[in-house]
Amino acid sequence: MSRSPRVMIYVQHLLGVGHLHRVAAIARAAHRGGCETLLVSGGMPDPTLHGLEGVRFVQLPPTRAKDASFRILLDENGDPITDAWRAMRILRLTTLFDDFAPDAVLTELFPFGRRPMRFELLPLLERMRSLSPRPRAFSSVRDILVDRTKPERDLDTIAWLQKFYDGAFVHGDDRLVPFEKTFPLAERIAGQLHYTGYIVEQHAIPETADGAGEVLVSAGGGAVGMPLFRCAVAARPLSAARELPWRILVSRQEDPAEVAELQQLAGPGVIVEPVRPDFPGMLRRCRLSISKAGYNTVMETLASRAQAVVVPFAGGEETEQALRANLLAERGLLRTVRESGLTPEALARAIDEALVMPKAPEAAIRLDGADETIRLIRRFLAERP
């Protein structure tokens, strides 16, 4: 290929923003790797997204999930999406595809998830399949899938993968979590699965002077953190970290009235402020991290080698956070507290245990997933007939 390869990346985050930030890391790696890169996001805009210089970013008319069940999707005005809205999105997405003319398309999670978005993704994939030469198609998927409450849907996943895709990039390390642990039919698509290692942002971490010697409390970008934040405030005086400065990073999606109440509860020595784009840099300087157990936060924490306590999210049908956190805890890389057992006393005990943990070894698990994803895409393109 004489010109730079063109890579189009599609992501639809519905609750938090972890999916968006994970593919943003892939987009940055694509740009570093000499690709013309288009990142298309269908979720709500995130003001903390940063470091996309050189990447073309397009925001589709956004949608989000009403709650953790993901059954009802709302538009940017908070109204349920309609057939007319879906038709508009299909047109916008396919027009972007036609104008960019990518050599490769990466769809985040689909077909292993994001089933409600098949109304626009299946037409796009059919369009790609009809072209000659056909753009390469890849799925980008986490190491752990949510609980498969309807196993028959796995057959749809396999059918779509085999019909439309050249491969699926599993952003994990099979020494920690083999994909078949949460996708029992993985053997049927073994030839299409490629482990990349975990994705951690290593190249666009803003410099920061904040966080040094602090206890950082965070819950990602969704509106699910208040129980943890309140519990952390109550646990502080019970823990060995009571004399340290604490900083609580609150999602902009949280209720402003609840944030104001939290600020009143926090008291001296505790800063309450919005989530910041330099959070990964703060992790490298902190004394302890207390957080939910989302993929991005946990991997950034491991990369920073910070001592950590995680409280896996257990709302809706979510199981992936708990499974990953428990496996990492078994390796002695962090401490966990079950969401159902979250009390100030339990959190304080976990804090005390984490404070005396040794730092994790740097090579505990593979963390080069973004760059490996682009290496694989370029390899597939080089092998094009």
From TrEMBL:
Residues covered by the Glycosyl transferase family 28 C-terminal domain: 228-363
Protein name: Glycosyltransferase family protein
Source superkingdom: Bacteria
Protein's organism: Ferrovibrio xuzhouensis
Bilayer-crossing regions: none
Database matches in Gene3D superfamilies: Glycogen Phosphorylase B (3.40.50.2000)
